[in-house]
Amino acid sequence: MSTNPHQQAVEQLEKVAAHLRLHYDGDDQARFDAAIERLKEPDRLIKDTLEIKMDDGSTQKFTAFRSQHNNARGPYKGGIRFHPNVSEAEVKALSTWMTWKCAVTGIPYGGGKGGIIVDPKTLSQDELQRLSRAYTQLIADFIGPWMDVPAPDVNTNGQIMAWMVDEYQQILSKRAVLAHTTGIGENPLATFTGKPLSLGGSEGREEATGLGGVFVMEKLVEKLFAQQPKKNISIAIQGFGNVGYWFAVHAHQLGYNVVAVSDSKGGIYNQAGIDPEKAFKHKQEHGSLPQQNVQVITNEHLLELNVDILVPSALEGVIHAQNADKIKARAIIEMANGPTTPEADEILLQRDIFVVPDVLANAGGVSTSYFEWVQNLQGYSWPHEEVIRKLRPLMETAFDQTWEMHQRTHLSGRLSTYMTAVQRVVDAMIMRGQV
After folding, report:
1. Where are the domains of the chain?
2. Among 131, 147, 134, residue whose Cα is nearest residue 192
3. Residue 244: which of 274, 221, 219, 223 has the closest Cα?
4. Residue closest to 398 by CA, chosen among 208, 216, 217
5. Dihedral angle, C-alpha 334, 337, 341, 345, nearest 10 °
6. pLDDT at 2 over 80
7. pLDDT for res 175
8. Which of 25, 80, 153, 352 has the most beta carbons within 10 angstroms of its beta carbon?
9. Measuring CA to CA, which residue among 147, 167, 216, 225 is closest to residue 357?
10. Per-residue pLDDT for 185 more than 80?
11. Percent helix, strand and coil across the chain, each rounded to 5?
12. For 57-96, what is each residue's pLDDT tens digit?
């Protein structure tokens, strides 16, 4: 596998296509091959330099990207990240993976991703706002509720989405004046998701990714741990940010035994169980996880604990060729993006450790972004209970369909998930006559 993320995404696609091609014959097989070739590159890549006035009167340049991978199943959808390591290859890969994530959950989106090469910690609030507005000006011609719906990602948040919504609305208003029309013709709030509640954001968004992963875990437990009481099913969670915290809280509330959690400083382990809410409160008050009545462990040790379910929810590549043979968990639920390397995947498969891949496990976030978009299009706001009520069947159905593919093909959880997603995208392209 290549270390270039886009090339890695292409190699994954080729691997999936080799299995999936057997499902097509005749002219459809030729169309399938043509679709796979198209899916190796994004439909469009926007790349430019943004020049921003700094607080001291100087100007600074920043390279910005937006990759729109495929829209056969609906508008492009994907986050915008502000980070020094953003690259063309990264946004192309992430937009590709977003296509699969939307397809596997069945929501009517394609994949997109954007970013700016910047360390936002070095910018003032005013500079950050100017950069956000400049980025919106760059992509304004290529976004909209039925074209491309961006969202927050690494180092971006609801405030940045609010600035972008405002800038986009101003652009639409100016266009309306120039065209001598009476209105802007669309709800600009529906062009961005992950917004503050006061600007059309959705209830439940904060916990959606972690909770969606727990819904998936519940289905997995039915398949692999059917005879075990929940209190006897042990879970170790690496990463105690938003995703890991909410996964831990909801798992604990359902009666599972959360025995280990960790943050960037290290982890804690207690075979009898940990209360995630108490641990998080201690971290907020003291700056670290509690140290009493627990065994202090490293992040590396957490991955190798003798538990039933391992939940990597922090960094990419933490399960790799050097430690995959030490993993003792019976199943892995990937709540982080890309926590398992391709080499580790092969080792885990040989050891019969079932992996629920990130494109399914952490899709609760984009699913709730979809709910936000629907609410904005309707000009309506759903209560928290309704959002959660809609999220559960969406995640459960996605798992059931990929499990069915796994049972039919006897392939890994990752390959089965990708096959489900890629088949849906290819079929949409064929039906549209795009290939």
Report:
1. 43-185, 207-352
2. 147
3. 274
4. 216
5. 30
6. no
7. 85
8. 80
9. 216
10. no
11. 50, 15, 30
12. 999 999 999 999 999 999 999 999 999 999 999 999 999 9
The residue assigned the tokens 């430019």 is 48
Contacts of 43 (CB under 8 A, 6+ apart): 68, 69, 70, 71, 76
**Do 43-185 and 207-352 share a fold?**
yes
Find out whether 418 and 359 touch, Cβ atoms under 8 Å. Answer: yes
Burial of 228 (0-12, 13-18, 19+ CB in 10 A): exposed
The 331-333 sheet, strands edge to edge: 295-297, 266-269, 257-263, 234-238, 309-312, 331-333, 354-356
Contact 137, 167 (CB under 8 A): yes
* Model confidence pLDDT, tens digit, residues 239-271: 998 999 999 999 999 999 999 999 989 999 999
Single-letter code of the amino acid located at 131: L
User: What is the value of pTM for the model shown?
Assistant: 0.91
Question: Position of tokens 């209190």?
Answer: 231
Phi, psi of 390 (to 5 degrees): -80, -30
CA 314 to chain centre: 12
Q: How confident is the model at residue 315 (pLDDT cuts 50, 70, 90)?
A: confident
Strands 44-53 and 59-70, how do they pair?
Answer: antiparallel
Mean pLDDT of the chain: 94
For residues 177 and 10, what is the distance between their CA atoms, to the nearest angstrom? 44
Instruction: Provide the 8-state DSSP code for 133.
Output: H
Predicted pLDDT at 26: 86
- Dihedral sign for Cα 427, 22, 332, 230, please: positive
Question: Is residue 402 predicted with pLDDT exceeding 80?
Answer: yes
In the residue annotation, 113 being an active-site residue is answered as: yes
Q: Does domain 207-352 have CATH number 3.40.50.720?
A: yes
Which CATH architecture group holds 43-185? 3-Layer(aba) Sandwich (3.40)
